[in-house]
Structures are given as structure tokens and as C-alpha cells.
Amino acid sequence: MLAAASEIAVWSGVPEHSPWVGAVVVAAILACGLPTLKKGWIALRHLTLNIHFLMSLAVIGAMCIGQWPEAAMVIVLFALSEKLEAASLTRARRAVEALMRLAPDQASVEQPDGNWLDVPSASLSVGTRVRARPGERIAIDGVIEQGSSALNQASITGESVPVDKTVGDEVYAGSINESGLIVYRTRVAPGDTTLARIVRIVETAQQQRSPTQRFVDKFSRIYTPVVVLCALLVALMPPLAFGLAWSPWIYKALVMLVIACPCALVISTPVTVVSGLTAAARAGILIKGGAFLETGRLIRAVALDKTGTLTRGEPRLTDVVPLGETSHDEALTLAAALDAQTTHPVARAVVDGHTRAGLGALPSVTEVEALAGMGVKGRVGQTLYYLGNHRLIESLGVCNAHVEATLARLEAQARTAIVLASETQAIAVLAVADTLRAESRDAIARLAGMGVHTVMLTGDNRATAEVIGRQAGVSDVRAEMLPEDKWQAVSALRETYGYVGMVGDGINDAPALAAADVGFAMGVAGTDSALETADVTLMDDDLHKLPAFLALSRRAATVLKQNIAVALAIKAVFFALAVVGLASLWMAVFADVGASLLVIANGMRLLRTKVA
Predict the structure, then answer these.
(1) In whole angstroms, what is the distance from residue 236 CA to residue 230 CA?
(2) Element (H or E) spanning 545, and its range?
């Protein structure tokens, strides 16, 4: 505001050397320019002609030849470009903190006298017996010695449905105990858990990602020393070699520095990037920095998580198959009545399916009993009903060839099947599954049309992964992958395709998101850690926004190249005029301000881009 005010004042007729203009310019430079001037002084002391030195020299030169508002505007625009790229510097630290918060600080540990005491999780040793009550998170990796439960370990393995665990099964730190009380014995030290390994992978991947160096910084390695050398030769050679007056040649050298000042170059990148970021934000795509907008155009392969990314991330009722005279609606109503008595995710899917079907109120259920590892039973009216897995039906002796065939057919479609039965017969088979998002197939097809190879990475079993992969149309399916496997897969894809994107929503995706050149998080379904680790957030979980982002990135890259070419071409022309003595001060100002206005106008065209 101060720099713009000084420019407007001079354009309005206020003398450039008036105390009012001088005070405003000094205030602007003190507000924005001190870090740049300090870095320029350090560069001079170390004889390093970097962009900070050139900016400092140009600002001082502009003030020396009386262009005070220009000096203020140059330093402000440069400071703005620096700020735009500094917003995501603490991303790695926040991501790791979010990961670490998954593991509880306290764990309930068995004491020698048989009592249970809450102790810090960090103090647990290998072989300790730990108790996990319903709703609690597992404190450390271990093996169950007592009890059974359904554990939601989607944050670790990516499995879409909580896994039933019983004695002898492994549990992972950070997973959630959904239902029953379990006691497990620790098998690793706190620093060696699966979750801890994820944290280390994220830290390593973030450190290995080298920041994109701006074109202006690279260019200034050659541009800056050449400009300063030319200006010094113009200022010194004529007076020393030919005895000419010092003042006119120093003036010409300063004019050259003002012409050569990379103001248009400096503003060309941020104005284009900000326009692109704004256009993306309007469409619900949040990009954490200009570097990621620029990198998107280079992506040739995209890895996608399954659960919560290609699919909805929660089980839904997909099938109700009556096996006898009981109708579809009656079977669903009976199953929902039994499942309404439990909080298991599969049970919730059945109840939600009944609600969506609009079948009215559920009948009352008595004598309800949870059957550990098998299902639930309860009495409706005078009949005792059972609802559970294959093992439950076999234990009742009501399993037959028809039931087996129906279960096999549904499970081949990657669905979790359960059976409703009475004491004498199987009544119906119900199935739930994590269903494909409506937009996933079209989004994958658009990526393929853009020449982007797609790979699905999931912790789910091979059968489920293959079914979802075929439905979505992805090029390659890789299943049963732990977080480090996903990280390694993304690293391998980078070796094959160059630049790689990764789309995910869970903690298990964080290492792969960090390893990718651009990480994409599903904004609504995504966990805090995925959102922190990712570079781009798709706010309404619409995969259509992924190809839209790549298209915007390619358009932004075109505009950036145009701006850089225009800025350099104008500088080259007027610099040549200054060398031969044909450029005056007003030409220097025109070259700098004119080039800046051109690149600003061109960059702002991105605001009109429709991202869809």
C-alpha cells in the first residue's frame, strides 16, 4: 500500500523528492525490504552476486537517480514473491506431529498382583501385557492373548472394513478397538512400532524432496554478475580510459541497473501462480504452494489409494438375497433389527440400508447375545434368529450347497457376506462392500486421456483390489500393501515415469504422499496427517478435480513461459539501447514498469480459467 501510494502521488504531480514521498518510500522499504537488503549485504561481503545482491543494488541505484517510488515498488514486489513460497516450510513437522498423536500416551498394563495400571506408552517393554477396552486405540504392536474384537486398522493397513481379531492375531499401534475387551502382549519396543516406522518414512521422504528452485534464482547466477559487470564497465571505463566526466557515465550505469532490475521477472511468477491458485481454490482445490502448481504439469503417473479415494471409504449394503419364502424386505428388516443391537461397522451398514429403503420401524428384539467372532442372535416374536458369518451358519448346521454358492458368488465380487438364519434354516444372505465413487471411473478415464498412467495401491486383499481396480479402470492394481510398501511403490514409479502424483486419505498413505512429487489428499474423508502431508487437497472428495488440477498446471506453465519470455525480451531490447547510450531514464522506467504490467495482465488471465 505504501509503495503504491508513492507511485500514485508522483503520477499525480507530487515531486519525487518531496519529504512526503520520501517518508512513504522509506517506510515501505523498512517494512518489506530489510531482509533482502541484509541478504544483499551478506552476499556482497562474501562476493556472491545473487538475486538479493542485485535487488539491493537496483533499489539503492533507483534511489540514487531519484526514482524513489520505483525503489519501493521493486523491493515490495520481491518481498511478496519470497513470502508466497514460504507458507509450507513447516509442513513436515506438522505432519509428523499428527502421526505421533495417533498412538495413545497411556496404556493399561497388568501389574504383578493382577491389577491394571495406566502407565506412559513410551515406558512399555517387550512382553508386557496390555489391555484395550472398546473405543480405545492400541498403544503398541502386539499379539492378542485374551478376548476378541473388531479392530479398525484402516489408518495403518488401509483395509476398508474393521478386521475381526481373536487370540493369536496381531494388533497395530494406532488402530481402534471397535467392540470387545482384549488383552495383548507387546512384541516390539515403542520406537519400533508400525506407526513409528511410518513416522520415520515420512521424515525421510520429506527430507529427500528437494525444493523446486525458482527460475529467477537459477538465471541470476549468470544474469546478475553480467549485469553488474556491464554497469561497472559503463561507469568506470569512459572516465578512466578516455578522461570523460564521471557523472554522466555513473548515471548511465544506474539507468542500466534499473533497466536490468528483474522486477518483471520477479512478479511474473507470483502473479501467475496466485492467479492459478485462486482459480483452483474457487473450484475446491487447495494447493499449498506455487511449486506444486508448476510441478503438476510434469506428472506422468498417479498412484491412488483405494479406500476413501476410489471408493467411499465406508461399507454399504449391496445385496439381500432371500434363500426361501421370506421376502427381500422382510429379510432386511429382520437383519436390521438384530444388527441394531451392535455397533460393528458391517451391522451399521445393514441398519443404514434398511433406513434408506424406507421400510419403517424395526421390530423389537429380545434375548440379544453377541456371539464372539461369529455374529449376533436374538428373538423376534417367537422365533430365535441368528445373523453372522460362514462359521456361525456351519455351527448351526444349516449351511447347504445353495448357501455356499451364494456366499462364494458375493465374496468373489469383493463383498463381505453374512447370513440370516433361524435355528432350522438359512433365510437370506446379505452383503456389504465399500462401493466405488460415482466419479472415479470417469476421472481415471480423463487421466488416461491426458497420457497419465494410473496405479491403485491398497492394503486390502487381492480379490477386493482386483474387483475395484476393474470397476475404476486403473492401469495397474497392487494389493496387500503396508505403508512402507506404498512408499517403495511410489519411489519405483518415480524411477520409471519421472514425476509421480499420489492420492490418498489415510495415515497409511502419508509416507507415499510425502514421497510423491505432488501428494493429493481427499479433503472431506482425509485424516489430519494426510491433509498435512499432501501438497494439494481436493476439498469435496471429487476425483474429477485431479485431472482438472493437471490441466490447470499445464495452462499455468504455458503462461509462466510466456511471461518470462516477454520480461527477458523487453529487458534485452532496452538494455542494448542503454549500452549504446540511446536509453534515457524514462525509457528505463518504461521498460521496467511496462514489462511488469504486461506480465501481470497476462498472468491474471488464469483467473478466468474454468477448473472442472
Answers:
(1) 10
(2) helix 545-579
Cell output for 406 = 451364494
- Express each pLDDT in 392-451 by its tens digit: 999 999 999 999 999 999 888 878 899 999 999 999 999 998 888 888 999 999 999 999
Radius of gyration for the chain, computed over Cα atoms and rounded to the nearest angstrom: 33
Cell numbers at residue 329, please? 424386505
Catalytic option among 305, 319, 339, 509? 305
Torsion (CA) 71, 72, 73, 79 in degrees, nearest 10? 110
Reduced to 3 states (helix: H, G, I; strand: E, B; else coil), residue 262 is: coil
| pLDDT, mean of residues 466-490 | 90
Q: pTM of the full predicted structure?
A: 0.62
Q: Which residues contact residue 565 at a Cβ distance below 8 angstroms, ignoring those fewer than 6 apart?
A: none
Residue 458 host element (H or E): none
Residue 25 near residue 15, CB atoms below 8 Å: no
Specify the amino acid at residue 93.
R
- Which cell numbers hold the place of 206? 520429506
H helix intervals, 12-67 = 19-32, 34-45, 51-64
Short-list 509, 523, 522, 417, CA closest to 456: 509
Cell numbers for 24: 512513504
Beta bridge partners, 521, equal 504, 537
CA distance 542 to 524: 10
C-alpha cell at 436: 466405488
Catalytic: 305?
A: yes
| C-alpha to C-alpha distance for 103 and 121, rounded to whole angstroms | 8
| Ordered strands of the 375-380 beta sheet | 311-322, 426-436, 416-422, 383-388, 375-380, 366-371
- 518-522/499-504 β-pairing: parallel
Describe the strand order of the beta sheet including 476-478 as a list of residue ranges.
285-287, 536-538, 518-522, 499-504, 299-305, 453-457, 476-478
φ/ψ of 71, rounded to 5, equals -60, -45
Question: How far apart are the two ends of the chain, measured CA to CA in Å?
Answer: 35
On whether the CB atoms of residues 538 and 523 are closer than 8 A, the answer is yes
- Whose CA is closest to 487, among 287, 310, 286, 305? 305
Provide φ and ψ at 479, rounded to 5°. -115, 175
What is the pLDDT, as a whole number, of residue 184?
96
* Grid coordinates belonging to 178: 471397535
pLDDT digits (tens, 9 = 90+) for 238-274: 899 888 888 778 777 777 776 666 666 666 777 777 7
Sign of CA dihedral 137, 142, 146, 152: positive
